[in-house]
Design the sequence.
Protein backbone atom coordinates (compact mmCIF):
# COMPACT_ATOMS: atom_id res chain seq x y z
CA UNK A 1 0.00 0.00 0.00
CA UNK A 2 2.74 2.40 1.07
CA UNK A 3 4.88 1.47 -1.94
CA UNK A 4 1.96 2.00 -4.31
CA UNK A 5 1.14 5.40 -2.83
CA UNK A 6 4.75 6.56 -2.93
CA UNK A 7 5.26 5.33 -6.49
CA UNK A 8 2.11 7.21 -7.53
CA UNK A 9 3.38 10.36 -5.83
CA UNK A 10 6.87 10.09 -7.39
CA UNK A 11 5.91 11.56 -10.83
CA UNK A 12 4.26 14.52 -9.08
CA UNK A 13 7.48 15.20 -7.17
CA UNK A 14 9.45 14.92 -10.40
CA UNK A 15 7.07 17.38 -12.03
CA UNK A 16 7.54 19.82 -9.13
CA UNK A 17 11.31 19.45 -9.48
CA UNK A 18 11.12 20.22 -13.21
CA UNK A 19 8.85 23.22 -12.56
CA UNK A 20 11.32 24.49 -9.96
CA UNK A 21 14.39 24.05 -12.16
CA UNK A 22 12.93 25.03 -15.53
CA UNK A 23 10.39 27.71 -14.59
CA UNK A 24 10.86 29.21 -11.12
CA UNK A 25 14.65 29.31 -11.50
CA UNK A 26 14.28 31.50 -14.60
CA UNK A 27 13.28 34.40 -12.38
CA UNK A 28 15.76 35.98 -10.00
CA UNK A 29 13.10 36.89 -7.48
CA UNK A 30 13.87 39.48 -4.83
CA UNK A 31 14.60 38.20 -1.33
CA UNK A 32 15.73 34.76 -2.46
CA UNK A 33 12.43 33.66 -3.99
CA UNK A 34 10.81 30.37 -3.08
CA UNK A 35 11.13 26.68 -3.81
CA UNK A 36 7.92 25.11 -5.03
CA UNK A 37 9.38 21.65 -4.37
CA UNK A 38 10.18 22.56 -0.77
CA UNK A 39 6.72 24.02 -0.12
CA UNK A 40 5.08 21.04 -1.85
CA UNK A 41 7.06 18.53 0.21
CA UNK A 42 6.34 20.29 3.49
CA UNK A 43 2.62 20.53 2.69
CA UNK A 44 2.59 16.86 1.68
CA UNK A 45 4.37 15.93 4.91
CA UNK A 46 1.80 17.78 7.05
CA UNK A 47 -0.98 15.79 5.37
CA UNK A 48 0.76 12.40 5.55
CA UNK A 49 1.69 9.72 8.03
CA UNK A 50 5.20 9.74 9.48
CA UNK A 51 6.43 6.84 7.31
CA UNK A 52 5.21 8.42 4.08
CA UNK A 53 6.49 11.86 5.15
CA UNK A 54 9.95 10.47 5.84
CA UNK A 55 10.14 8.74 2.46
CA UNK A 56 8.85 11.72 0.49
CA UNK A 57 11.17 14.03 2.47
CA UNK A 58 14.07 11.78 1.53
CA UNK A 59 13.03 11.70 -2.15
CA UNK A 60 12.48 15.47 -2.34
CA UNK A 61 15.79 16.14 -0.61
CA UNK A 62 17.51 13.83 -3.09
CA UNK A 63 16.02 15.82 -5.97
CA UNK A 64 17.07 19.10 -4.32
CA UNK A 65 20.60 17.72 -4.02
CA UNK A 66 20.52 17.00 -7.76
CA UNK A 67 19.80 20.68 -8.41
CA UNK A 68 22.77 22.53 -9.87
CA UNK A 69 22.29 25.36 -7.41
CA UNK A 70 22.79 23.07 -4.39
CA UNK A 71 25.98 24.39 -2.85
CA UNK A 72 26.54 21.83 -0.12
CA UNK A 73 27.67 18.22 -0.34
CA UNK A 74 25.33 15.72 -1.99
CA UNK A 75 23.06 14.31 0.69
CA UNK A 76 22.78 17.47 2.79
CA UNK A 77 19.32 18.34 1.48
CA UNK A 78 18.37 14.63 1.59
CA UNK A 79 19.19 14.46 5.29
CA UNK A 80 17.53 17.77 6.19
CA UNK A 81 14.36 17.06 4.22
CA UNK A 82 14.10 13.55 5.62
CA UNK A 83 14.28 14.89 9.16
CA UNK A 84 11.94 17.78 8.33
CA UNK A 85 9.36 15.52 6.71
CA UNK A 86 9.36 13.11 9.60
CA UNK A 87 9.29 15.85 12.26
CA UNK A 88 6.47 17.81 10.61
CA UNK A 89 4.35 14.74 10.17
CA UNK A 90 5.09 13.62 13.72
CA UNK A 91 3.96 16.97 15.12
CA UNK A 92 1.07 17.64 12.76
CA UNK A 93 -0.41 14.25 11.89
CA UNK A 94 -3.53 13.43 13.84
CA UNK A 95 -3.79 16.94 15.18
CA UNK A 96 -6.96 18.36 13.65
CA UNK A 97 -6.00 21.86 14.76
CA UNK A 98 -3.28 21.67 12.15
CA UNK A 99 -4.56 19.29 9.47
CA UNK A 100 -8.18 20.41 9.22
CA UNK A 101 -7.33 24.07 9.24
CA UNK A 102 -5.97 25.67 6.05
CA UNK A 103 -4.50 28.64 7.92
CA UNK A 104 -2.87 26.24 10.39
CA UNK A 105 -1.25 24.29 7.54
CA UNK A 106 -0.01 27.48 5.86
CA UNK A 107 1.64 28.77 9.03
CA UNK A 108 3.00 25.30 9.73
CA UNK A 109 4.54 25.14 6.25
CA UNK A 110 5.96 28.68 6.43
CA UNK A 111 7.59 28.06 9.81
CA UNK A 112 8.87 24.67 8.65
CA UNK A 113 10.24 26.34 5.49
CA UNK A 114 12.15 28.82 7.64
CA UNK A 115 13.45 26.14 10.00
CA UNK A 116 14.57 23.95 7.09
CA UNK A 117 16.53 26.85 5.59
CA UNK A 118 18.09 27.65 8.98
CA UNK A 119 19.04 23.97 9.34
CA UNK A 120 20.57 24.09 5.86
CA UNK A 121 22.67 27.17 6.68
CA UNK A 122 23.74 25.77 10.07
CA UNK A 123 24.68 22.34 8.71
CA UNK A 124 26.35 24.02 5.72
CA UNK A 125 28.50 26.06 8.10
CA UNK A 126 29.52 22.84 9.87
CA UNK A 127 30.40 21.25 6.52
CA UNK A 128 32.41 24.29 5.39
CA UNK A 129 29.93 25.80 2.92
CA UNK A 130 29.99 29.62 2.66
CA UNK A 131 26.54 31.18 2.86
CA UNK A 132 27.53 34.85 2.88
CA UNK A 133 27.37 37.46 5.59
CA UNK A 134 24.93 37.04 8.49
CA UNK A 135 22.91 40.05 7.33
CA UNK A 136 22.65 38.64 3.81
CA UNK A 137 21.55 35.25 5.18
CA UNK A 138 18.95 36.91 7.44
CA UNK A 139 17.60 38.96 4.53
CA UNK A 140 17.34 35.82 2.38
CA UNK A 141 15.64 33.86 5.19
CA UNK A 142 13.14 36.66 5.71
CA UNK A 143 12.53 36.98 1.97
CA UNK A 144 11.98 33.25 1.55
CA UNK A 145 9.52 33.19 4.45
CA UNK A 146 7.55 36.06 2.95
CA UNK A 147 7.48 34.28 -0.41
CA UNK A 148 6.37 31.05 1.26
CA UNK A 149 3.61 32.96 3.04
CA UNK A 150 2.45 34.46 -0.26
CA UNK A 151 2.69 31.31 -2.36
CA UNK A 152 1.42 28.65 0.09
CA UNK A 153 -2.24 29.83 0.14
CA UNK A 154 -2.31 29.70 -3.67
CA UNK A 155 -0.73 26.26 -3.91
CA UNK A 156 -2.36 24.60 -0.90
CA UNK A 157 -5.71 23.75 -2.59
CA UNK A 158 -3.87 22.16 -5.54
CA UNK A 159 -1.50 20.20 -3.30
CA UNK A 160 -4.34 19.12 -1.02
CA UNK A 161 -6.36 17.88 -4.02
CA UNK A 162 -3.39 15.94 -5.40
CA UNK A 163 -2.77 14.41 -1.98
CA UNK A 164 -6.43 13.46 -1.74
CA UNK A 165 -6.37 11.80 -5.17
CA UNK A 166 -3.49 9.56 -4.22
CA UNK A 167 -4.35 8.81 -0.61
CA UNK A 168 -8.15 8.96 -0.88
CA UNK A 169 -8.24 11.23 2.13
CA UNK A 170 -9.01 14.67 0.78
CA UNK A 171 -9.81 17.11 3.49
CA UNK A 172 -12.14 20.04 2.88
CA UNK A 173 -9.35 22.53 2.35
CA UNK B 1 3.32 -0.92 18.03
CA UNK B 2 4.53 -2.99 15.08
CA UNK B 3 3.81 -0.01 12.82
CA UNK B 4 5.80 2.32 15.07
CA UNK B 5 8.74 -0.07 14.99
CA UNK B 6 8.61 -0.28 11.21
CA UNK B 7 8.50 3.53 10.92
CA UNK B 8 11.49 3.88 13.20
CA UNK B 9 13.43 1.24 11.25
CA UNK B 10 12.60 3.01 7.98
CA UNK B 11 13.71 6.35 9.46
CA UNK B 12 17.01 4.86 10.63
CA UNK B 13 17.65 3.31 7.19
CA UNK B 14 16.95 6.63 5.45
CA UNK B 15 19.12 8.59 7.90
CA UNK B 16 22.00 6.17 7.40
CA UNK B 17 21.56 6.38 3.61
CA UNK B 18 21.61 10.19 3.60
CA UNK B 19 24.67 10.32 5.87
CA UNK B 20 26.29 7.73 3.59
CA UNK B 21 25.61 10.02 0.59
CA UNK B 22 27.18 13.00 2.39
CA UNK B 23 30.24 10.92 3.28
CA UNK B 24 30.62 9.67 -0.30
CA UNK B 25 30.41 13.20 -1.68
CA UNK B 26 32.85 14.64 0.84
CA UNK B 27 35.29 11.84 -0.01
CA UNK B 28 34.99 12.77 -3.70
CA UNK B 29 33.43 9.51 -4.95
CA UNK B 30 32.78 9.87 -8.66
CA UNK B 31 29.36 8.14 -8.66
CA UNK B 32 27.76 11.17 -7.03
CA UNK B 33 29.22 13.49 -9.67
CA UNK B 34 27.91 11.22 -12.41
CA UNK B 35 24.40 11.25 -10.92
CA UNK B 36 24.44 15.06 -10.88
CA UNK B 37 25.84 15.20 -14.41
CA UNK B 38 23.15 12.81 -15.65
CA UNK B 39 20.39 14.84 -14.02
CA UNK B 40 21.71 18.08 -15.53
CA UNK B 41 21.89 16.47 -18.97
CA UNK B 42 18.22 15.55 -18.61
CA UNK B 43 17.26 18.93 -17.16
CA UNK B 44 19.05 21.23 -19.63
CA UNK B 45 16.45 20.79 -22.47
CA UNK B 46 13.69 21.68 -19.97
CA UNK B 47 15.67 24.72 -18.78
CA UNK B 48 16.31 25.78 -22.36
CA UNK B 49 12.63 25.44 -23.22
CA UNK B 50 11.70 27.32 -20.04
CA UNK B 51 14.14 30.10 -20.92
CA UNK B 52 12.66 30.48 -24.43
CA UNK B 53 9.03 30.37 -23.28
CA UNK B 54 9.49 32.62 -20.26
CA UNK B 55 11.71 35.31 -21.78
CA UNK B 56 8.77 37.67 -22.58
CA UNK B 57 7.40 37.18 -19.04
CA UNK B 58 10.85 37.79 -17.55
CA UNK B 59 11.24 40.94 -19.63
CA UNK B 60 7.82 42.16 -18.51
CA UNK B 61 8.64 41.61 -14.83
CA UNK B 62 12.06 43.15 -15.29
CA UNK B 63 10.44 46.23 -16.85
CA UNK B 64 7.94 46.46 -13.99
CA UNK B 65 10.64 46.01 -11.36
CA UNK B 66 12.92 48.56 -12.97
CA UNK B 67 10.17 50.99 -13.93
CA UNK B 68 11.65 53.96 -12.06
CA UNK B 69 15.16 53.02 -13.03
CA UNK B 70 14.19 52.53 -16.67
CA UNK B 71 12.60 55.97 -16.80
CA UNK B 72 15.74 57.51 -15.31
CA UNK B 73 17.83 55.55 -17.75
CA UNK B 74 15.72 56.74 -20.70
CA UNK B 75 16.08 60.33 -19.54
CA UNK B 76 19.79 59.82 -19.07
CA UNK B 77 20.12 58.22 -22.47
CA UNK B 78 18.08 61.00 -24.09
CA UNK B 79 20.37 63.58 -22.53
CA UNK B 80 23.37 61.60 -23.65
CA UNK B 81 21.94 61.29 -27.12
CA UNK B 82 21.43 65.03 -27.35
CA UNK B 83 24.97 65.58 -26.16
CA UNK B 84 26.29 63.12 -28.75
CA UNK B 85 24.34 64.86 -31.49
CA UNK B 86 25.92 68.15 -30.48
CA UNK B 87 29.29 66.52 -30.39
CA UNK B 88 28.88 64.99 -33.81
CA UNK B 89 28.37 68.41 -35.30
CA UNK B 90 31.87 69.25 -34.33
CA UNK B 91 34.10 67.35 -36.73
CA UNK B 92 37.09 67.23 -34.46
CA UNK B 93 35.13 65.90 -31.54
CA UNK B 94 33.44 63.35 -33.77
CA UNK B 95 36.84 61.96 -34.76
CA UNK B 96 37.79 61.61 -31.12
CA UNK B 97 34.48 59.93 -30.32
CA UNK B 98 34.91 57.47 -33.15
CA UNK B 99 38.36 56.58 -31.92
CA UNK B 100 36.98 55.98 -28.45
CA UNK B 101 34.14 53.84 -29.79
CA UNK B 102 36.58 51.72 -31.74
CA UNK B 103 38.59 51.19 -28.55
CA UNK B 104 35.50 49.95 -26.71
CA UNK B 105 34.62 47.55 -29.51
CA UNK B 106 38.15 46.24 -29.55
CA UNK B 107 38.21 45.71 -25.79
CA UNK B 108 37.53 41.99 -26.00
CA UNK B 109 40.05 41.56 -28.76
CA UNK B 110 42.72 43.60 -26.95
CA UNK B 111 43.48 40.88 -24.48
CA UNK B 112 43.56 38.24 -27.19
CA UNK B 113 41.24 35.87 -25.36
CA UNK B 114 39.64 33.04 -27.30
CA UNK B 115 36.04 32.99 -26.15
CA UNK B 116 32.85 30.99 -26.53
CA UNK B 117 29.63 32.97 -26.24
CA UNK B 118 26.75 31.39 -24.34
CA UNK B 119 23.21 32.24 -23.34
CA UNK B 120 22.07 32.12 -19.73
CA UNK B 121 19.30 29.51 -19.51
CA UNK B 122 18.73 29.40 -15.78
CA UNK B 123 19.47 31.38 -12.66
CA UNK B 124 20.42 29.31 -9.64
CA UNK B 125 17.92 29.26 -6.81
CA UNK B 126 18.90 31.22 -3.71
CA UNK B 127 17.46 28.51 -1.47
CA UNK B 128 21.00 27.11 -1.21
CA UNK B 129 22.49 30.56 -0.52
CA UNK B 130 24.67 30.27 -3.62
CA UNK B 131 24.87 32.53 -6.67
CA UNK B 132 24.98 30.51 -9.87
CA UNK B 133 23.71 30.55 -13.45
CA UNK B 134 23.43 27.82 -16.07
CA UNK B 135 24.52 28.50 -19.66
CA UNK B 136 23.56 26.69 -22.86
CA UNK B 137 27.08 25.63 -23.89
CA UNK B 138 29.20 22.85 -22.43
CA UNK B 139 31.91 20.37 -23.28
CA UNK B 140 30.61 20.13 -26.87
CA UNK B 141 31.64 23.79 -27.33
CA UNK B 142 35.05 23.26 -25.74
CA UNK B 143 34.14 24.53 -22.30
CA UNK B 144 35.93 22.92 -19.38
CA UNK B 145 35.74 23.24 -15.61
CA UNK B 146 37.56 26.21 -14.03
CA UNK B 147 37.41 28.56 -17.02
CA UNK B 148 36.92 32.30 -16.61
CA UNK B 149 33.50 33.65 -17.56
CA UNK B 150 33.13 37.24 -18.78
CA UNK B 151 30.23 39.61 -19.11
CA UNK B 152 30.28 42.69 -21.32
CA UNK B 153 31.79 44.67 -18.42
CA UNK B 154 34.30 42.25 -16.94
CA UNK B 155 34.30 39.20 -14.72
CA UNK B 156 31.05 37.24 -14.40
CA UNK B 157 32.30 34.12 -12.66
CA UNK B 158 33.96 30.78 -13.19
CA UNK B 159 32.83 27.47 -14.66
CA UNK B 160 32.03 25.27 -11.68
CA UNK B 161 30.64 22.20 -13.44
CA UNK B 162 30.37 21.33 -17.08
CA UNK B 163 28.05 19.00 -18.99
CA UNK B 164 27.81 18.14 -22.69
CA UNK B 165 25.43 20.96 -23.61
CA UNK B 166 25.36 23.16 -20.53
CA UNK B 167 27.58 24.46 -17.78
CA UNK B 168 27.12 25.73 -14.26
CA UNK B 169 28.74 29.08 -13.56
CA UNK B 170 29.60 30.24 -10.07
CA UNK B 171 29.04 33.99 -10.12
CA UNK B 172 31.65 36.36 -8.75
CA UNK B 173 29.03 37.49 -6.22
CA UNK B 174 28.86 33.99 -4.65
CA UNK B 175 30.08 34.05 -1.02
CA UNK B 176 32.54 31.23 -1.72
CA UNK B 177 34.01 32.96 -4.79
CA UNK B 178 37.67 33.98 -4.40
CA UNK B 179 39.89 35.62 -6.99
CA UNK B 180 43.40 37.02 -6.90
CA UNK B 181 43.15 40.71 -7.73
CA UNK B 182 45.62 43.47 -8.46
CA UNK B 183 45.06 47.18 -8.52
CA UNK B 184 45.56 48.67 -11.96
CA UNK B 185 48.56 50.96 -12.01
CA UNK B 186 50.01 50.34 -8.56
CA UNK B 187 50.09 46.55 -9.03
CA UNK B 188 49.20 45.90 -5.38
CA UNK B 189 47.72 42.47 -4.91
CA UNK B 190 44.90 41.13 -2.81
CA UNK B 191 42.05 38.65 -2.68
CA UNK B 192 38.55 39.59 -3.76
CA UNK B 193 35.68 37.67 -2.18
CA UNK B 194 31.99 37.62 -3.10
CA UNK B 195 29.39 38.72 -0.58
CA UNK B 196 26.17 37.52 -2.14
CA UNK B 197 25.49 40.95 -3.61
CA UNK B 198 27.05 43.16 -6.29
CA UNK B 199 29.63 44.26 -3.72
CA UNK B 200 32.76 42.27 -2.98
CA UNK B 201 35.36 42.39 -0.27
CA UNK B 202 39.02 43.05 -1.04
CA UNK B 203 41.75 41.95 1.37
CA UNK B 204 45.19 43.30 0.55
CA UNK B 205 48.05 40.89 1.09
CA UNK B 206 50.74 43.41 1.97
CA UNK B 207 50.38 45.64 5.04
CA UNK B 208 52.72 48.26 3.65
CA UNK B 209 50.47 49.07 0.69
CA UNK B 210 47.33 51.15 0.61
CA UNK B 211 44.22 51.27 -1.49
CA UNK B 212 41.99 54.25 -2.23
CA UNK B 213 38.45 54.82 -3.45
CA UNK B 214 38.10 54.59 -7.20
CA UNK B 215 41.01 52.17 -7.66
CA UNK B 216 40.27 49.70 -10.45
CA UNK B 217 40.78 45.99 -9.83
CA UNK B 218 41.88 43.48 -12.43
CA UNK B 219 42.29 39.72 -12.16
CA UNK B 220 45.83 38.66 -11.32
CA UNK B 221 45.61 35.43 -13.28
CA UNK B 222 46.27 31.84 -12.31
CA UNK B 223 48.85 29.25 -13.27
CA UNK B 224 48.11 28.10 -16.85
CA UNK B 225 45.21 30.61 -16.92
CA UNK B 226 43.03 28.27 -14.88
CA UNK B 227 40.71 29.22 -13.28
CA UNK B 228 41.39 32.89 -14.04
CA UNK B 229 43.02 34.59 -16.98
CA UNK B 230 44.93 37.78 -16.11
CA UNK B 231 43.80 41.31 -16.80
CA UNK B 232 40.01 40.91 -16.59
CA UNK B 233 38.29 43.99 -15.10
CA UNK B 234 36.67 43.07 -11.79
CA UNK B 235 35.35 46.26 -10.26
CA UNK B 236 36.34 49.42 -8.46
CA UNK B 237 36.90 50.31 -4.82
CA UNK B 238 33.96 52.13 -3.24
CA UNK B 239 35.03 52.20 0.41
CA UNK B 240 38.23 51.55 2.32
CA UNK B 241 38.31 50.13 5.82
CA UNK B 242 41.14 51.73 7.77
CA UNK B 243 40.39 50.10 11.11
CA UNK B 244 43.35 50.21 13.45
CA UNK B 245 44.90 46.87 14.29
CA UNK B 246 44.02 45.23 10.98
CA UNK B 247 46.88 43.19 9.51
CA UNK B 248 46.30 44.59 6.04
CA UNK B 249 43.81 47.01 4.53
CA UNK B 250 40.41 45.79 3.42
CA UNK B 251 38.04 47.50 1.01
CA UNK B 252 34.57 47.21 -0.44
CA UNK B 253 34.51 46.68 -4.18
CA UNK B 254 31.63 47.18 -6.59
CA UNK B 255 31.70 44.72 -9.47
CA UNK B 256 31.40 46.13 -12.97
CA UNK B 257 29.00 43.31 -13.84
CA UNK B 258 25.37 43.52 -12.87
CA UNK B 259 24.70 39.88 -12.03
CA UNK B 260 20.93 40.14 -12.02
CA UNK B 261 20.77 41.13 -15.68
CA UNK B 262 23.13 38.61 -17.22
CA UNK B 263 21.75 37.33 -20.52
CA UNK B 264 24.82 36.53 -22.59
CA UNK B 265 28.23 35.62 -21.22
CA UNK B 266 31.54 34.61 -22.76
CA UNK B 267 33.67 31.73 -21.53
CA UNK B 268 37.40 32.22 -22.04
CA UNK B 269 38.50 28.92 -23.56
CA UNK B 270 42.10 30.03 -23.93
CA UNK B 271 43.94 33.01 -22.54
CA UNK B 272 46.19 35.38 -24.43
CA UNK B 273 49.82 34.56 -25.18
CA UNK B 274 50.99 37.66 -23.31
CA UNK B 275 49.58 39.19 -20.13
CA UNK B 276 47.26 42.02 -21.24
CA UNK B 277 48.36 44.06 -18.22
CA UNK B 278 46.17 47.08 -17.58
CA UNK B 279 44.93 47.28 -21.17
CA UNK B 280 41.38 46.28 -20.24
CA UNK B 281 40.87 48.92 -17.56
CA UNK B 282 37.58 50.59 -18.46
CA UNK B 283 38.00 54.15 -19.68
CA UNK B 284 36.55 56.66 -17.25
CA UNK B 285 33.98 58.97 -18.83
CA UNK B 286 35.55 62.34 -19.51
CA UNK B 287 33.67 65.62 -19.77
CA UNK B 288 34.61 67.27 -23.01
CA UNK B 289 34.37 71.07 -22.80
CA UNK B 290 32.32 72.60 -25.57
CA UNK B 291 34.29 75.45 -27.11
CA UNK B 292 32.50 78.79 -27.15
CA UNK B 293 33.24 81.27 -29.82
CA UNK B 294 32.45 84.91 -29.23
CA UNK B 295 32.06 86.99 -32.34
CA UNK B 296 32.45 90.73 -32.08
CA UNK B 297 30.83 92.55 -34.92
CA UNK B 298 32.80 95.56 -35.95
CA UNK B 299 30.86 97.91 -38.23
CA UNK B 300 32.59 98.62 -41.46
CA UNK B 301 33.67 102.22 -41.84
CA UNK B 302 31.14 104.39 -43.54
CA UNK B 303 32.08 104.79 -47.18
CA UNK B 304 33.33 108.24 -47.91
CA UNK B 305 32.52 110.10 -50.98
Sequence:
Amino acid sequence: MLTRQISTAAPIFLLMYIIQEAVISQFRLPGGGFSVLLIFTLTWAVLSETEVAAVIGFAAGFLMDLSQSAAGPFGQWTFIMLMAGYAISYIGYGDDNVRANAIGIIFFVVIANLLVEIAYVASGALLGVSSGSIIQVLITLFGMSVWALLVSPILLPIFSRLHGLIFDSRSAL
Amino acid sequence: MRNGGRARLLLVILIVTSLFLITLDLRGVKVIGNIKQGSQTIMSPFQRAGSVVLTPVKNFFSDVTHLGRTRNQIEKLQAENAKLKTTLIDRKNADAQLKQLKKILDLAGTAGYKIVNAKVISNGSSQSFSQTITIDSGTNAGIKKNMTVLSQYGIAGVVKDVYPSSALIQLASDPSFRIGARIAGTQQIGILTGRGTRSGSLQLLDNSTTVKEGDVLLSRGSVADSPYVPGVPLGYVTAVDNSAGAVAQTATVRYYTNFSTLGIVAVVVSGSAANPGDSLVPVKPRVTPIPTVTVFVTPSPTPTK
Q: What stands out?
A: Residues 121 and 131 of chain A are 7 Å apart (CA to CA). Residues 2-167 of chain A form one domain. The longest helix of chain A spans residues 134-167.
